[in-house]
Amino acid sequence: MEEPSKFERYVYKNASVYHYMKISLVLESGNKNITDAQFKQLIICGLKDLYGEVGASFPFDLLKFDQNELTGILRVYNSGLVKLWSALTLLGSYQNEACAFRVTQVSPFLLALSGNSRELRFADQLI
């Protein structure tokens, strides 16, 4: 008699070491004169305000920055994702001006941030 086939299931919780975040900065005055270095420094200042020097010392990278839209893509280690996200959420001012970071998308895969179904436009909808 034949033995029944054996079913094996493999689950990978997260094969990626990094998470990628697509974020945007909203300034109260609508000023868009911010460079990529100032954008990253603002995030670092938010981390320092919330967690101090040592707590804010984990690495993250600004992979892409759009100066016209004030949006960027960040790469952060999985262990620092919650820390970075909370610092972005609680950051409230830039050069004595009210501001807010909006987290648009988060994914362990960079390719997932390349498109957003909420912003999808079809050819017949273009004017």
Question: What descriptive keywords fit this protein?
Answer:
127 residues, Ribonuclease P protein subunit p14, five-stranded antiparallel beta sheet, single chain, 29% strand, Alpha-Beta Plaits
Layout: helices, strands, pairs:
Blueprint: E1 18-27, H1 36-55, E2 60-66, E3 71-77, H2 81-90, E4 93-94, E5 97-107
Antiparallel strand pairs: 1-3, 1-5, 2-3, 4-5
Helix pairs in contact: 1-2
Any overview of this molecule?
- It is a single chain.
- This protein has a single domain, classed as Alpha-Beta Plaits, CATH 3.30.70.3250.
- It is flat and about 80 Å long.
- Strands 2-3-1-5-4 form a 5-stranded antiparallel beta sheet.
- Helix 1 crosses helix 2.
- The protein has helices at 36-55, 81-90, and strands at residues 18-27, 60-66, 71-77, 93-94, 97-107.
- It has 127 residues and is an alpha+beta fold.
- The CATH top-level class label: Alpha Beta
So, CATH architecture? Answer: 2-Layer Sandwich
What overall form do the CA principal axes indicate?
flat
Number of domains: 1
Mean pLDDT: 87
Radius of gyration over C-alpha positions, nearest whole angstrom:
20 Å
Number of strands: 5
Assign the structural class, choosing from mainly alpha, mainly beta, alpha/beta, alpha+beta, or little secondary structure.
alpha+beta
Series of H and E elements:
EHEEHEE
What fold name stands as the CATH topology? Answer: Alpha-Beta Plaits
**Strand percentage, roughly?**
25-35%
The spatial strand order of the largest sheet comes to 2-3-1-5-4
Distance between the termini: 69 Å
Q: Helix proportion of residues, in percent?
A: 10-25%
The residue ranges in which pLDDT falls below 50 over 5 or more consecutive positions are: none
CATH superfamily: Ribonuclease P, Pop5 subunit
Q: What summary fits the major beta sheet?
A: 5 strands, antiparallel
Instruction: Tally the helices.
Output: 2
